[in-house]
Design a protein that fits this description.
The protein has about 190 residues and is an alpha/beta fold. It folds into two domains: about 130 residues, 3-Layer(aba) Sandwich (Rossmann fold), CATH 3.40.50; about 50 residues, no CATH class. Helix content is about 45%, strand content about 15%. Strands 5-4-1-6-7 form a five-stranded parallel sheet, sandwiched between helices. Strand 4, helix 6 and strand 5 form a beta-alpha-beta unit. Helix 2 packs antiparallel against helix 4. The chain starts with a helix and ends in a 10-residue tail after the last strand.
Length: about 190
């Protein structure tokens, strides 16, 4: 979805939900190193080759002790170079435009709460759903469904802005429209 329809949705929807990494900021994280640490922590339950970080969380979904340790490791990796994060200008332009006008914005991210708060804490995004508060990571729609329950807004009044197939899958599973951040022209918000 591009052009006028995307622009209108970004400006007119009751709430726009943003992913964080790759959508508002590009985090500088050693994901390969984190995968290695996860492999050591959970052993044979998580094979590092060709797997995504989120699949490690799926493999321990019923083991809260391991998930807490994994979240701690992920937060360390995310925060170690958080100051090197760069803004994704099209996503930031849209969020800033909406927030300055008192329009609602939220976050649904598979980054840790600590990293999200470090980058956007206090800017007016509410609610914020992170990997810390879901059992199943993206592309599961769990986080978006939880967000809808929290705010009492249905899918037609929401829009999810992300940068991956997992974001699109989460949105589809929750019955929410999705726009890829690369379809947004920051000039729309000047």
């Amino acid at each position: 979805m591009v052009g006028k329809d995307a622009r209108a949705m970004l400006m007119e929807r009751e709430m726009v939900i943003f992913d964080l990494d790759g959508t508002l900021y590009d985090l500088q994280v050693d994901w390969a190193g984190l995968k290695g640490e996860f492999h050591e922590l959970i052993g044979g339950e998580f094979d590092v080759e060709g797997r995504y970080i989120m699949s490690a969380y799926r493999s321990v979904k019923e083991r809260d002790d391991l998930k807490r340790r994994m979240l701690g490791l992920q937060a360390e990796y995310e925060l170690s170079h958080i100051d090197d994060s760069s803004r994704v200008e099209s996503g930031i332009a849209c969020a800033e435009w909406r927030l300055k006008r008192g329009l609602r914005c939220s976050i649904f991210s598979m980054n840790t709460e600590r990293a999200v708060n470090q980058l956007i804490g206090g800017l007016g995004f509410s609610p914020v759903i992170t990997i810390d508060s879901v059992k199943m990571p993206k592309p599961s729609p769990e986080g978006l469904i939880r967000l809808m329950d929290m705010i009492g807004i249905k899918g037609d009044d929401l829009l999810f802005v992300g940068n991956s197939d997992k974001d699109a899958g989460s949105a589809a599973g929750a019955g929410i429209d999705h726009i890829d951040v690369r379809e947004i022209d920051q000039e729309w918000f000047k």
